Automatic annotation (TrEMBL):
Organism: Actinophytocola xanthii
Gene3D superfamilies, alphabetized: D-Amino Acid Oxidase, subunit A, domain 2 (3.30.9.10), FAD/NAD(P)-binding domain (3.50.50.60)
Taxonomic lineage: Bacteria, Bacillati, Actinomycetota, Actinomycetes, Pseudonocardiales
InterPro entries in UniProt: FAD-bd, FAD/NAD-bd_sf, PheA/TfdB_FAD_monoxygenase
SUPFAM superfamilies: FAD-linked reductases, C-terminal domain (SSF54373), FAD/NAD(P)-binding domain (SSF51905)
GO molecular function ontology, one term from the record: monooxygenase activity
The name this protein goes by in its record: 4-hydroxybenzoate 3-monooxygenase
Pfam families: FAD_binding_3
Domain FAD-binding: 2-339
Keyword Lipoprotein: no
Assigned keywords, A-Z: Monooxygenase, NAD, Oxidoreductase
Length: 391
């Protein structure tokens, strides 16, 4: 079995890369460990930058997205019992899209299947070998062990995949783990506000988001050791009411909770993002703490840069794009890493932080929402920095 590009992982990165390469006439095989149902129902991100939406639109992948998305033009920062709106579009000319990652994954799976090119579910890659020579991906499917030979391996298999470990000796890792996690719940109830609310409260961070006009997405900062069992419905709603409460005029709409999970917050970068003919993309190469809503958007940029570089290499033998891939992505990734760390640090309660640190957070929040210069800096990062040239 042989292909031009073996794509390991059918998350947003792998599926989008497969489609961008299909549009350029490049042959790929996509291998995914989980079932189709599993990847289409996994609740994760919900915020897309305008740059990501533009790219999906140009690739012909955004018809349903344009029909069903919510467009947001601002976000609210809540502290001291009062909301402070940052008018993102007024400050930057850019808008945000609310559209569930699992809905995007459904669209990408459908687009892939429509091309007739291979996408194998329940087909875990078990090893990646000879990436500095003739790469081979070994995987299992229907109980049979198989070998996929290829020119290039795209490691799109997320943080817990096999591609990064396969070349670990050639990589340097930079990592920071935070002393808190997020409990995320999905509730069948109309959102309680038109926009996202990021709340900095003395009991910890909370976030009000949404998936549609009928489904609310909410997050609470919790200790990283907490399991979902520690958070029955009543406790979730009480804590959300407290942290999202304000001095005047806010009622939190409550409804049935239909999904509940705990996610650790982590900052992680691999350098470089390439070894030989193996290219790492998305969560396989880097993780940001969820606070800035950047993870999915970073994955989109990586695969856009990689697709353009692979096109030049296959068509003209021009290796320069592949040589530049890692540095091109990493320069923007480190900027986004800083933004995500900064926003996380500003909004969360660090367990052993002293009252001085809390005062600094509040001073930062007042400056951010009170100064147009500061709000503009926040806004240009939050709506998404320009994509690298050629992506
Ligand atoms: P993944 O989505 O992890 O996909 C990797 C795929 O590879 C998976 O399907 C996995 O099953 C498969 N795989 C793994 N190992 C193997 C193997 N050995 N063989 C074959 N397949 C394998 N980002 C944002 O931009 N905005 C947000 O609002 C946001 N909110 C988030 C909220 C939460 C609660 C979480 C958890 C994440 C959030 N993120 C957000 C981050 C975002 O979800 C990820 O960055 C994104 O999923 C990365 O896509 P990916 O394709 O690189 O990795
Ligand atoms: C969502 C997730 C985020 O990490 C964020 O910053 C904003 C919204 C969400 O899932 O809706």
């Amino acid at each position: 079995e042989r292909t031009q590009v073996a794509i390991v992982g059918a998350g947003p990165a792998g599926l989008l890369l497969a489609h961008l390469l299909h549009l350029r006439g490049i042959d790929t095989v996509v291998l995914e460990r989980q079932s189709r149902e599993y990847v289409e129902q996994r609740i994760r991100a919900g915020v897309l930058e305008q740059g990501s939406v533009d790219l999906l639109t140009r690739a012909g992948l955004a018809d349903r997205l344009h029909r069903e998305r919510l467009v947001h033009n601002g976000v609210e920062l809540l502290f001291d019992g009062e909301g402070h709106r940052v008018p993102l579009t007024e400050l930057t000319g850019r808008e945000l899209t609310i559209y569930g990652q699992h809905e995007l994954v459904k669209d990408l799976v459908a687009a892939r299947l429509a091309t007739g090119r291979p996408l194998l579910f329940e087909a875990p890659a078990v090893s990646v070998e000879d990436v500095t020579g003739s790469p081979v991906v070994r995987y299992t499917h229907n109980g049979v062990e198989r070998e996929l030979h290829c020119d290039v391996v795209a490691g799109c298999d997320g943080f817990h995949g096999v591609c990064r470990p396969a070349v670990a000796q050639a990589l340097t890792v930079y990592e920071h783990v935070y002393p808190f996690a997020w409990l995320g719940v999905l509730a069948e109830v109309a959102p309680s506000a038109e926009e996202l609310i990021y709340a900095s409260h003395d009991r910890g961070f909370a976030l009000h988001s949404m998936r549609s006009l009928a489904v609310t997405r909410l997050y609470l900062q919790v200790p990283p050791t907490d399991e979902v069992a520690a958070w029955p419905d009543a406790r979730v709603w009480t804590e959300l009411r407290t942290r999202l409460g304000r001095t005047a005029g806010f009622t939190l709409n409550e409804g049935p909770i239909i999904d509940r999970s705990v996610t650790a917050l982590r900052s992680f970068v691999t350098e470089p993002m390439r070894h030989g003919r193996l290219f790492l993309t998305g969560d396989a190469a880097h993780i940001v703490p969820a606070t800035g809503a950047k993870g999915l958007n970073l994955a989109v940029v990586d695969v856009a840069v990689l697709a353009a570089a692979l096109e030049r290499w296959f068509a003209e033998g021009d290796e320069s794009g592949l040589e530049a891939y890692s540095a091109t992505c990493l320069s923007r990734i480190w900027r986004v890493q800083h933004f995500s760390w900064w926003m996380t640090t500003m909004l969360h309660l660090t367990p052993e932080a002293d009252p001085f640190a809390r005062r600094l957070q509040l001073a930062q929040l007042r400056y951010l929402t009170g100064s147009t210069a500061s709000a503009t800096s926040f806004a240009e990062n939050y709506v998404g920095l320009p994509f690298p040239e050629g992506a």
